[in-house]
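Sequence design from tokenized structure. All designs in this work follow the same two-part layout: the structure record, then the generated sequence. An example of the structure record is given first.
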């Protein structure tokens, strides 16, 4: 059974930045769709269309749309100050079965309170390496630029580098 990934707007935008910097290619995202099922909500899709996120547009046919089913928690998250796209993720049925990828630090912290599986893209690189889905060299190739782009705090960068070195 494939892993279920929900990728939020900020990560799709990060994918575009990484593609522009030639750190990843659309083939990387295509490979992700081969090893996992990738989902977005209707609200995330609206944002991605509005911001014309190229990586999403190119992969749109491979991405599944999942609706909000838990309106109560969705509404509570909006009341807690998150927009409809961010809030929509937690409103997905059986959200605990998904791995959420986000570059939005406050969202990662908030969803962690609910004990959801949520991580930054850099952490996903480690998971892919640890499951032999990418090579050690590829992991280094991804992690170094993320730190240079200030997407990865130095402390977390050092931790990931140590994990990769021990792998």
């Amino acid at each position: 059974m494939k892993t279920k990934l929900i990728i939020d707007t900020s990560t799709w935008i990060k994918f575009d930045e990484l593609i522009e910097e030639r750190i990843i290619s659309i083939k990387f995202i295509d490979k992700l769709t081969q090893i996992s099922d990738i989902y977005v909500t209707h609200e995330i899709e609206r944002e991605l269309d509005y911001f014309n996120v190229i990586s999403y547009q190119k992969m749109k046919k491979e991405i599944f749309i999942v609706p909000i089913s838990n309106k109560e928690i969705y509404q509570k998250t909006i009341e807690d100050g998150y927009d409809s796209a961010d809030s929509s993720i937690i409103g997905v049925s059986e959200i605990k079965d998904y791995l959420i990828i986000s570059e939005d630090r406050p969202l990662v912290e908030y969803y962690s309170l609910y004990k959801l599986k949520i991580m930054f893209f850099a952490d996903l690189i480690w998971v892919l390496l640890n499951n032999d889905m990418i090579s050690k060299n590829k992991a280094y190739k991804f992690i170094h630029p993320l730190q240079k782009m200030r997407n990865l705090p130095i402390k977390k960068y050092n931790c990931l580098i140590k994990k990769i070195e021990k792998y």
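The CA atoms of residues 29 and 46 lie 20 Å apart. We note this feature because it recurs in several other targets discussed in the main text.
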